[in-house]
Specification:
This protein has 743 residues and is of the alpha+beta class. 20% of the residues lie in helices and 31% in strands. The chain has a nine-stranded antiparallel sheet with strand order 4-3-2-1-6-7-8-9-5, covered by helices on one side. Strands 13-12-11-10-15-16-17-18-14 form a nine-stranded antiparallel sheet, with no helix packed on it. A nine-stranded antiparallel sheet has the order 22-21-20-19-24-27-28-29-23, with helices on one face. Strand 16 and strand 17 form a beta hairpin. It is elongated. The N and C termini lie far apart (137 Å).
Length: 743
């Protein structure tokens, strides 16, 4: 009896040890029973395993011919360990993890269908892809949390559960639960990831980095000086530090960084299978905030493939042993745009929804020949990088005369919907309203109108004055000084009002007319003081600069308050039309010669005319001694005069408001009683104001048709009181002679 007891206890202990081994290895006891009760809609693996998918650091993938082991390093980067170490495609890893987490059981085939023939028919033996996922264990051994074998795609689609979408399905078998031989139909399909074999799981992107983390780029060619570009932060501008000192074009630099990210190899090759030239044709080195480690990409000479007649080039990186086969330039498309979209859909190894999303987001492929890697292509062709709304003052001077124009901005208020206003002044004269459009066009032109050419660069450390003299900038026609907006964040320190950030200094640009040494022709050249580059400027920009006050004067012809108008006098047909206006009563009276025409005044047209006259703008101001305008205006064909009574607030007496009396307790009584009591209250003191004085002002406009042979008819005009001459558009001049009477 004791022997049987001993045998029983021994077998029980062996059984318990076996179960402990399975628990340690797989974390489940279904391997012992060989069966797991699946129901439609269930996940393949326990929820606790799915919750640990983010901790997976080991993946094994097998097909009929190959096996790869993938591990994740401390930085979260996945690597293929054999047959040679190389980075794994992040997209492939993400697809495997998402499929494992989201796949759901649709149906299970009966056990009697699981025959040798059915295994081949469903692909679990003929085209299997076995995947095992493990997480780190507490004792140093990894723990399996998922294991399954993918078969073929099924001919059925499954409901996604939201009543709208349907999902593809695939045959699958899992031995995670033991000797279960059943074949299941599950949602999802990641077979396209493996369509080119397991070697296709290598990351096809030679460089892996975040665009915002890049801080430097170095471009090297044999026998040439290195091109070095830098920036201080993701928001800062790129600058060219060598072989010249210049500002880089932000859009082009962003495009270059994005293209380096998007480079995608057609194939990732074993270095032992490729014979490379002794040295690369081009080397791109990327530095960033990730530390001293530099990402290095070597590009070798391009060649034409004998198989598909496409142009390729080999590439290598410093952190991977693989050789990348990159396409140098796109092949000629034989089909139309619809054909190109269709082809791109079928070439992408992802689901159609993701392929469509990529096309919509402009995820175009990058080709090595499209990389902008020269100083001329990357440098900025802007004359200034200052934004128009970042300039507070402008000074325009000349080295050849004492003429000068000063422009100052009066800041508006965004919340109050008050726009910025510019004022102008000649030399040391007083300020007047400027034409905002002319000033803003100048600032936008300096930034947004590209220069025609960069004609010369001073090397680092070289004195630029020789360049200035060569292109006539030592005696520039214009000196533009731009003062950026001051710092608005200030602090009180020891009784002094100081900016928290040092206010930026003015920037001065020289613009002169000189002879181009290359062509021998006259051209406009420009250079920033303290800069190192001379530009040949586009005349679209230089035409925006002028030392004439008329260029900057506001084109508002006669801005006046309508409330001050009391009379309009129009040279109306054969007799003058005199209209008297009562702003308070909104009434009009008038005479045409000696005839009373008050009943015939159309008040709506009269008020519209008055407001149109208030907003009237000239097309162009002329010099006061313009001979053509003066000759034409010797006999004006029409005139309009506005008489106003303007309140002179400058002469009004100043007053103060007394300290308000304390609140008085309200007692019962009628409102009239309370008002009378307040008026008789000694503590009630009304505010006394002086009567405002008024002065009489008149504005008289005379117009006459201009050159009748012109393609665009216009009118000459004059403000009689000031003698200022101008040009009016034909349509605006017609509006001045508007009919306000119903006759």
């Amino acid at each position: 009896m004791s022997v049987l007891k001993t045998i029983f206890l021994t077998l029980l202990a062996a059984f318990m040890v076996t179960m402990c081994v399975f628990l340690a290895v797989d974390g489940n006891l279904s391997r012992v029973t060989g069966w797991y009760h699946f129901k439609p809609g269930m996940a393949l693996f326990p929820q606790e395993n799915i919750n640990r998918l983010n901790d997976v650091d080991w993946i094994r993938i097998r097909d009929l011919h190959d096996e790869i082991i993938c591990t994740r390093d401390a930085n979260g980067v996945w690597w293929i360990e054999s047959p040679f170490r190389d980075r794994m495609s992040p997209g492939a890893v993400q697809a495997i993890l998402e499929f494992t987490a989201r796949t759901r059981l649709v149906d299970s085939l009966p056990m009697n269908n699981t025959t040798r023939t059915s295994l081949r028919e469903y692909g679990v033996e003929t085209t299997p892809h076995s995947i095992t996922l493990k997480t780190p264990g507490s004792n140093g051994h990894r723990k399996t949390i998922a294991r399954y074998t993918l078969g073929s795609s099924t001919p059925w689609m499954a409901d996604a559960g939201n009543g709208q979408d349907i999902l593809p399905t695939v045959y699958l078998r899992t031995d995670y639960y033991g000797r279960d031989k059943r074949i299941h139909v599950v949602t999802g399909n990641i077979l396209p990831v493996f369509k080119d074999g397991l070697e296709a799981l290598r990351d096809p992107h030679p460089l892996l980095f975040e665009a915002d983390a890049v801080r430097s780029l170095s471009i090297s060619r044999p026998g040439q000086e290195d091109l070095l570009l830098r920036r201080l932060s993701a928001e800062a501008d790129w600058t060219i530090a060598a072989p010249i000192l210049a500002v880089a074009e932000k859009d082009k630099m962003d495009s270059l960084v994005a293209d380096l990210q998007r480079l995608r190899a057609r194939r990732v090759l074993d270095p032992g299978d490729v014979e490379l030239p002794a040295e690369p044709e081009l080397r791109v080195t990327v530095g960033g905030i990730w530390g001293e480690r530099l990402l290095q990409l070597d590009l070798y000479p391009e060649f034409v493939s004998d198989t598909d007649q496409r142009t390729y080039r080999y590439a290598c990186t410093a952190d991977r042993k693989a050789v990348f086969l990159l396409q140098a330039k796109p092949e000629v498309q034989r089909g139309g745009s619809y054909s190109a979209i269709t082809n791109s859909l079928f070439e992408l190894p992802l689901l159609p929804e993701k392929a469509l999303a990529q096309i919509k987001s402009g995820n175009r492929p990058a080709y090595t020949n499209a990389l902008e890697v020269t100083a001329d292509s990357l440098r900025s062709h802007r004359f200034s990088d200052l934004a128009a709304n970042d300039v507070a003052r402008i000074s325009i001077r000349s080295m050849k005369s004492a003429d000068a124009i000063r422009l100052v901005k009066l800041p508006g208020n965004t919340e109050g919907q008050v726009n910025d206003e510019w004022m102008y002044a000649e030399a040391t004269g007083r300020y007047h309203h400027a034409e905002n459009t002319a000033v803003v066009n100048l600032l936008h032109g300096m930034r947004d109108i590209p220069v025609d050419e960069v004609v010369a660069d001073a090397k680092p450390g070289e004195d630029p004055h020789e360049l200035m003299a060569r292109y006539g900038l030592d005696k520039a026609n214009y000196m533009l000084s731009l003062l950026p907006n001051p710092c608005n964040v200030r602090a009180i320190l020891f009784g002094c009002d100081l900016p928290l950030v040092k206010d930026r200094e003015a920037r001065t640009f020289l613009i002169g007319r000189g002879t181009d040494p290359k062509t021998g022709k006259k051209a406009w050249f420009g250079m920033e003081m303290g800069g190192s580059s001379v530009f040949r400027l586009n005349t679209k920009f230089t035409r925006l600069i002028s030392l004439r006050a008329a260029k900057w004067k506001s084109r508002q012809l006669s801005d006046f308050p309508i409330s001050s108008v009391h009379r309009l006098t129009l040279n109306y047909k054969q007799a003058p039309l005199v209209l008297d206006y009562d702003y308070t009563g909104e009434s009009w009276t008038g005479k045409l010669g000696d005839k009373d025409v008050t009943p015939n005044i159309n008040t709506h047209r009269a008020e519209y005319y008055l407001r149109s006259l208030q907003k009237l703008k000239v097309s162009q101001w002329l010099d006061d001694n313009d001979e053509d305008a003066l000759a034409a205006l010797a006999r004006p064909v029409f005139s309009v005069k506005v008489d106003m009574e303007v309140v002179d607030y400058g002469e009004a007496e100043k007053f103060t408001v007394d300290t308000p009396r304390p609140e008085v307790e309200v007692t019962d009584g009628t409102p009239e009683d309370l008002i009378a009591a307040a008026e008789n209250d000694e503590e009630f003191q009304p505010v006394e104001t002086a009567e405002h004085k008024t002065r009489h002002e008149s504005r008289t406009i005379e117009i006459v048709p201009g050159d009748n042979t012109s393609d665009t008819p216009f009118f000459y005009g004059r403000l009689v009181e000031t003698g200022e001459l101008f040009i009016l558009r034909f349509e605006d001049a017609q509006g001045l002679a508007g009919d306000m009477l119903d006759l």
